[in-house]
Structure formats: C-alpha cells, structure tokens
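Our working data are protein records whose layout never changes between entries. Instead of coordinates, the fold is spelled out as a row of discrete tokens. Here is such a record, shown just as it appears in the course material:
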Amino acid sequence: MGIFQKLSTVIKSNINDLISRAENPEKMLNQIIIDMRDQLAKAKREVAAAIADERKLKSQLDGEVKQARDWQHRAMLAVREGRDDLAKQALVRQKEHTDRAHVLQQTWEAQAAETEKLKGSLRMLNDKIEEAKRKRNLLIAKQKRAQAQRRIHETMAGLSDTSAFEAFNRMADKIEEEERRTIAHAEVTEAISGDTLETEFLRLEAGSGSADVEDQLLALKQEMGLIAPPEPSSERRRLSAGDDETANGPVREAELESPSEEGNAAIPEAELLSEFDRLEQRHSKS
C-alpha cells in the first residue's frame, strides 16, 4: 500500500468518524481541515525521506562510476609501463565497479521516477486541502444562512399565533391607561395646589381677544360710515345720552361695551360661510 493510499484511508476514516458524531458542522469542518493538514505534514516527511534515499542512490552511483573511471586510468598507466599483470587487475576492478554502477543506475532511475510521482501527489494533496479550505468557508456560510432561515421561520410560526398579538395589544392598552392616569393625577394635583390668582390672570388674558374683536368691529363700522367717529371729550357722554345714531338706528352703550354672549359665541365655519352667502344674496337682490 502506497504512502498516499494509506493517508487517504486515514483521512476517510477520520472524516467518517467525525460525520457520524457531528453536532456542530462548523467545528466538524475545521477539524477535518486540521486532520488533512496533519496528514499532509506526514506525507511531506515521507516524501522527504524518499528524496533523501534517491539522492543517496545517486551519490553511490556517482561513486561507482568514478571508481570505474579511476581503475581504467590505472590499467592504461600499467600498460604504458609494461606491467600487463597490473593492467589486468585494474581492468578486473574497473569491471566490478562498472557492473555495480549499472545496477545502481537502474535502481536510482526507478527511485527518481517514484520520487517525482510522490512530489506530484504531494502537490495535488496540498491543492485539494486548499480547495477544501475554500469549500469549508462556503459551507459554513451556507450553514449559517440555513440556521438564520430556520430561526426566522420559527419566529414567524410563533407570531402566527394570535395570542402573541393579543398579549401585545393588552400591554399597549395597559401602558396607555397608565399614561392617562398619570395625566389625570397631574391635573388633579395642579387644581388643588395651583396658584389660583395666576390662573385668574391667565383667564383674563385669554379673554382679551374678544375685546380686540369688538374694537376691530367698531373701527370697521366707522370706516364704512355706519357710525360717526367718536369725539375724544364727549364720546362717552353722547353714547350714554343716546345722541350717536347709526344708519340702522341708535347704538346703545351696553351693546358697545358689553356685547351679547350670542354675538361672541363661536360659530362653526360651515354655518358662518352659509350665513355670509345669504347676506350676499340679499345684498345683490336689493
């Protein structure tokens, strides 16, 4: 069984165990990524060991090739010196190193090819782990959205019960009733302990508006020529004696100084407009 097949088996078993006892998907996904990274670290160590073995074989191969080359040079030197016996021994040694170098060459080539495969598998495993990390973030986001949607549905299901709205309305009525009681209590307290003199003056100030209206009415009649302008010294005397007369008849002092309650009473706007319409129609006919 290869290194990465063993790692795949371990990862699958860990994932299946986590899924079988998963309660929190986010924690489960994080734990799976942690396990993957641990297995990746182990795979890196295995690949590093394989690379070290491959380099060791290459070093042994280079040593045998060098020895074979050296013994060949010694054989050539012995031949030049006329020592054929030494040349034969050197050629025997040269052949031994050449044979070992040939075997090591095959072993090293196979180890180098396997090492390259391991490197490629390691890169693929690292890429898959990075992809799993990206998918983890997406899955966690989906899981949170699902939880939020479920909570919304649960809340809406709870609100569909009319009892919740009835309780809300009862509480609103209770608060409004408390507010009305508070205002009434304040009014009672003010009526009992308030400054009556100040209240009377405020009432008098509020009533001064009717006198202003009477003054404006009197000025309007004078402008229209219905009554004569008052003389500064004898206005009050003439009014009390009945000397001043309007075009429609005498103007009594009581009418000027104390207007009737009927004239001062507020008339609804609709009735007021209707009355003016009748006056305009009467004026146009005359």
User: Anything to note?
Assistant: DSSP finds nine helices and two strands in the chain. Confidence is low (pLDDT under 50) at residues 242-262. The longest strand covers residues 245-246. The radius of gyration is 58 Å.
